[in-house]
């Protein structure tokens, strides 16, 4: 795990949010506040590049939608190919004639990681194509405890800290009847 403690406070929103993982939280990281300023986006992605050091990869792969602009910028700065996966039914897949050649080394670029589940889905996608996972990069990681896959896959992030998440059934904000905000676009109705 390599983490640079970068000040991301300007993207943090407080309220009652439904995350793309399906979990609820009082904290949301609005990464569109980074990408709306391309120069700022370029600067922040250059900091990710600085963390990658000697990582070897051929392709940057991002999950649509929120991470695409960051993955694209990373690929631009690193001089690599860029692909993005879309969830059109229940699974993340490549569409639009995008493909991973066998033995390609793939760096996954996310914007925010909560459960690590999306990264795992992309590992499966890469594995099925015969590629290799070179690592995962993310602007924000919402938990300090390592994910199980970090035993074998390096994770690079600019900001990593514990942020509260709750299953809807035990969410204290739901119990207090605080209005739920759905800020993302990729939630697929998982409980
Ligand atoms: Zn809730």
Summarize the structure.
The protein has 191 residues and is an alpha/beta fold. The chain contains five helices and nine strands; from the N terminus they run βββααβαβββαββα. Helix 2 crosses helix 3.
Can you count the helices? 5
Q: Please count the beta strands (DSSP E, at least 2 residues each).
A: 9
CATH architecture: 3-Layer(aba) Sandwich
Q: Can you tell me the residue ranges where pLDDT is under 50 for at least 5 consecutive residues?
A: none
What would the CATH topology be? Rossmann fold
| Class from secondary-structure proportions | alpha/beta
Describe the protein in words.
- The protein has helices at 32-35, 38-52, 68-78, 117-128, 172-175, and strands spanning 2-3, 12-18, 24-29, 59-63, 81-87, 92-94, 105-113, 132-141, 155-160.
- It is globular.
- The chain has a single domain (2-175), classed as 3-Layer(aba) Sandwich (Rossmann fold), CATH 3.40.50.2020.
- The protein has 191 residues and is α/β, with parallel strands linked by helices.
- The model has no long low-confidence stretch (mean pLDDT 91).
- Strands 1-9-8-7-4-5-6 form a seven-stranded mixed sheet, sandwiched between helices. The chain has a two-stranded antiparallel sheet with strand order 2-3.
- Helix 2 (38-52) packs across helix 3 (68-78).
- It binds zinc ion (ZN).
- The site of zinc ion (ZN) has 7 residues, from helix 5.
